[in-house]
Description:
Blueprint: H1 10-18, E1 31-34, E2 38-41, H2 47-52, E3 60-65, H3 71-80, E4 91-95, E5 99-101, E6 104-108, H4 115-120, H5 125-136, H6 148-152, H7 156-166, E7 173-178, E8 181-183, H8 185-192, E9 202-204, E10 206-208, E11 215-217, E12 223-226, H9 227-240, H10 242-255, H11 259-269, E13 275-276, E14 302-304, H12 308-325, H13 333-341, E15 349-350, E16 352-353, E17 359-362, H14 367-372, H15 375-379, H16 384-393, E18 399-403, E19 406-410, E20 417-418, E21 427-430, H17 432-442
Parallel strand pairs: 3-4, 3-7, 4-6, 9-13
Antiparallel strand pairs: 1-2, 5-6, 7-12, 8-14, 9-12, 10-11, 15-21, 16-20, 17-19, 18-19, 18-21
Helix pairs in contact: 9-10
Amino acid sequence: MHLALDWTGVRGLSSQCNNHGSLRDHHDPGTSEIGEGKTSSLSRLGEDDLCSSAPSGSNLMLSLKMGASRMHYLLPTHLLTLVRCAPANQLLISSDRDEIFAGYPVHDVLKNVSRGWKEMHDDFETYRMLEKYRTGGLRLETLYGTSGWLLDKWKYIPIALLAHALAPSHVEWFVFLEDDAAVSWTNLIAWLATLDPSEPRYIGRVFPVINSTLTFAHGGSGYVMSRPALERLVHARETEGAEAFDQRWENYTSTSCCGDIVTGAVMEEAGVVVEKSGGVLQMETLNTITFTNETWCQTPATQHHVDAYQINDLWRFQTAWVRKHGWTVPYTWSDLFRELVLENIQSPRKEWYNWREDMQYFASANESVWDSYDDVQKASVESAENCAEACDHEVECLQWRWIDGRCFLGTELVYGIASEQGAEFWTSGWHLERVERRMGEWGDCRGGRGDGR
């Protein structure tokens, strides 16, 4: 049985936030007694004032897609940090069930999917379990890591339609984000100000579909649509008839791997082809981005695969940046590197994995390969110190990584991540003299250099 898309009551639910203004208005400073009658402000070091000075975000709708099993871990961090400057009545939080979270409506965007899919299709197993967990008083976070990601692809078209239905008429841009994405309010507003919202625009980090002419914007990196683009989607649905349109695209979704591919297909059919963001919308993080002449001066508005700690670090960086430079100066990967990375690579790091492996040396190499190594390369597999010496020996080497019996050298610059529990424990290091020389060659990204868009 098909359930026609019905947003009755949704506007009423959303209107509970409309009188709150922006996210910062939920966090009025208070006082508490400390010692003998002394009081202390709880205004988070003036961050509320920071949002009040932000450029207007009144022309955008920010859509944040959450999984119900992760919501209580990530949503508080988002609301307290990087999205707090967004107008609250233009923040759409979508998930797998309806609820009110700290005063904000969270919308179950799957409730209008046809009942047959939800009751019978394997993709909806977690959705059915969510209802049992909710009514049984069980902890939803214990479902994380199950097949919840299969549900994700069914959310994309409903979220786009809901965003259009809820957006005030003055909204020109729709920004769609995942729960594990970080957004730079500074860079996002500055970037959107350079674009024309009167044209149908669908912008993101573009990928092709294998064995197809279809291209799409990667969902994890975030993507942006103008109002005319979404109106083409809505018009296509109205022209075909809502029930027929929904059934056809539900069938398409059921055989597709990913919701961002579904989005690319439905937008292409509506006459809107995806455009490249040129490095502004990112699938990388500060830990995984390869710093090169091309990326150094890009101004990332999003980062993907971040956790709550990284989101908080980026908020603290943005707060300090705005206090020093104001809201009109976007920051670059180079600014993030100088402030958050450089001091952490001054010496080798144990239990750290810095990714690059452009040259590889193995103690277990076969005889012919081993014989091709010089003495420094052979010794490199014996210790971290020897691996660092091998990096010094190779004039293009910027970093190295060692574990007993293996030494990997990198000719490009990556910060890396801590070794996870149960993983191999590598020691990583960087050739600081060459790193600083390369930074000088890339420049400070001011005074006329492009920003990578």
